[in-house]
Request: fold
Amino acid sequence: MGTYARFPITLVKGQGCWVVDDTGKRYLDSVAGIATCTLGHSHPALRRALKRQLRTLQHVSNLYRIPEQEELAHWLATNSCASSVFFCNSGAEANEAAIKLARKHGHTRRNIERPIILTAASSFHGRTLAAVTATGQPKYHQGFEPLVEGFDYFPYNDLQAFEALLERHEANGPAVAAVLIEPLQGEGGVNPGDRTFFKRVRELCSERNILLILDEVQVGMGRSGCLWGYQQLGIEPDAFTLAKGLGGGHAIGALLVQQHADVFQPGDHASTFGGNPFACRAGLTVAKELERRHLLENVQARGEQLQAGLKQLITTYPELLKEVRGWGLLQGVVLQDNAKVNAAQLAAKALDHNLLVVAAGPSVLRMVPPLVINSREIQILLKRLETTLAHC
Reply:
């Protein structure tokens, strides 16, 4: 179906941070499947682990205990604030599970008849109907009305607006079941969360027994330079969602919850493919490689290198570029309001110079390379981006 406005290239193979198209042209990949290929392409550890898994079991369904699933859940819980995990197949599914969790919490713990979930403007939570309603961008809503009821929106990082919205909904008694928010907005323009804002939201949610649910689909699994985005903000959520980088290019999502927020019972939610042995083996391999290769340290160092290089490009091309923002290896360079090109056009021009980058809205060019990228490859990325800008 015609749901994608694709770039005019056909990628056929990859190795590490590099991909090759069907003409033999080689590109430095700073998209990584949109922040998904944590270990890059065709990683030896993933190849070995998944080959072994194919010799045993790929799928048995959640009618039975799955050792690979339990092992991955144990790793995630041990290395986060969560105590239990529900596995699914994507970020949108993880956020759907979080929305159901929030509603059940609202009904059973706050005695709300019609629970409301507060989300941020410019957010992105997925393409399913409830997740797209949670997404605070009207452009994603158009043509799909009527939307799912029970959502309202506040400006990201705006504490005064958030408190006013919360008070309006709670003026006559409990009404808000949860706050669903990204630690850093990815699709919304690479907007990092403000620590003061998030700490106050955490306090307000704790005071009223409102769930604070973080969408870590894009920043989780080390992309921010910490294992989890909430660590950048100095708080702990009641629940958070993962996908993308968790499987290193293989389809898996997860909802992680602290014990007090675990209101699901058998029959409340399910997934046929979620947490199958193959997907969980991929997740386990990514987790172990993050530890074995000390990739968080690499993300921090390469993120600083990338951000410094992008700031230098701003001084060279002030007529095109305005600022840089982001965490770790999720960086966005913001275009000037009167720039000759928008972010999508700039990403298309970068193809001519063997570089893959991606837009985050009309005015932000996003770089989310594999977490294994090295110093030399960051230099190549910056050089090719500079060549792209010189030809604008």
